[in-house]
Specification:
alpha/beta; two-stranded antiparallel ribbon; 43% helix; SAM-dependent_MTases_sf; methyltransferase; S-adenosyl-L-methionine
Length: 340
């Protein structure tokens, strides 16, 4: 029984750790399970363990989440403790006091744990829509696509991937850390998104090529260091990019996540996919995968209709059960494989 209880406690700790590192909504935490555990004599010790796995986590100390988020989390943790125990927890109050005196920056960090034991840490805007773009934060479909990619690493292994609308960079960084791509091109069109993307690539221990031309002209020596993927961040405007410019990337795989948020972007995306269909490498067009959350069925219907008119067939990728990252459980997400 003791072993079973330890396993339950470990699962609970992991649930808190993953959610806090990724700064997920407080309502998503396993609070009910915590309340049940707090009624046991080991409850206070468990709270200290949670503190070490969240606010005091080495990743959070080095790359802190939003101050407001940490404050709300600690306040809720204290409420749960006080509902069961009359003795206050000095450690919890001290942690809260430290957060209360901290200033809220315009950017915060989120971290996502990978199966390898590594992690992806992102610097993101504290606002969902900032400077007129949604690309400064990570959306659910990016997490969903990253999970699928980790489970299907052969799609990317030793190949060149081009990501359209990379946003904060979660999907690409997860692929680069787990799937052994030969090269990865992050792309977006907003200058602040591109600046943040470059910062996130460097934050995760990668170096950046100055441009795509650098590795096309200079493939590099066969050394252990060369086994790491070659990365670049490219400005790519879907409305003005040309087929020859896309062909210069020499992509084997094209992917995009959560870019179907209005009819205008759908039309622009299909336009760039049509151009990519003419980019032949070894006599074949690149594989393509688009992931999205179904928010407005009409927008999704427009996407598949436009694909059909462009002569691009598609099929749904089977849902995967791998739940590596915390995101909204009730979100309906889809990955389409496109035949360019």
């Amino acid at each position: 029984m003791a072993q079973e209880e330890r396993a339950d406690a470990a699962r609970l700790l992991l649930g808190f750790e993953r959610r806090f590192l990724a700064a997920r909504a407080l309502r998503s935490y396993p609070w009910q399970s915590l309340e049940e555990k707090l009624r046991d004599s080991s409850g206070s010790e468990l709270l200290l363990d949670i503190l070490q796995k969240t606010v005091k986590h080495p990743l959070c100390v080095k790359h802190p989440p939003s101050v407001k988020y940490s404050r709300s989390f600690l306040s809720e943790l204290i409420r749960k403790h006080e509902a069961v125990h009359t003795e206050p927890s000095d450690e919890l109050y001290q942690a809260l006091a430290e957060v209360l005196t901290a200033e809220e920056p315009t950017h915060c960090h989120r971290s996502y744990l990978l199966p390898s034991g590594d992690s992806v840490t992102l610097c993101e805007s504290t606002a969902i829509v900032s400077h007129g773009t949604t690309g400064l934060v990570t959306w659910n479909a990016a997490l969903y696509l990253a999970e699928w990619a980790v489970e299907n690493s052969a799609v990317f292994a030793h190949r060149t991937a081009l990501e359209l609308g990379s946003g904060a960079g979660l999907t690409g960084l997860a692929i680069c850390k787990t799937c052994q791509p030969k090269a990865y091109i992050f792309s977006d069109c907003h200058s602040l998104v591109l600046e943040q993307l470059r910062g996130n690539v460097l934050l995760n221990g990668f170096s950046l090529e100055p441009s795509i031309d650098a590795w096309v002209q200079h493939p590099g020596p066969h050394t252990p260091e060369a086994e790491r993927p070659r990365l670049t961040v490219a400005r790519l405007d879907w409305n003005t990019v040309t087929a020859p410019q896309l062909a210069a990337f020499q992509p084997d795989v094209v992917l995009a996540a959560d870019v179907l948020y209005c009819p205008e972007t759908v039309l622009s995306l299909v336009g760039v996919l049509r151009k990519l269909s003419t980019c032949r490498k070894d006599q074949r067009a690149p594989d393509a995968y688009v992931a999205f959350t179904i928010r407005n069925p009409e927008t999704c219907q427009l996407f598949t209709t436009e694909l059909g008119q462009a002569g691009i067939s598609w099929e749904k990728v089977p849902r995967h059960d791998q739940k590596l990252f915390p995101y909204e459980e009730h979100s309906e997400m889809v990955i389409l494989k496109l035949m360019l």
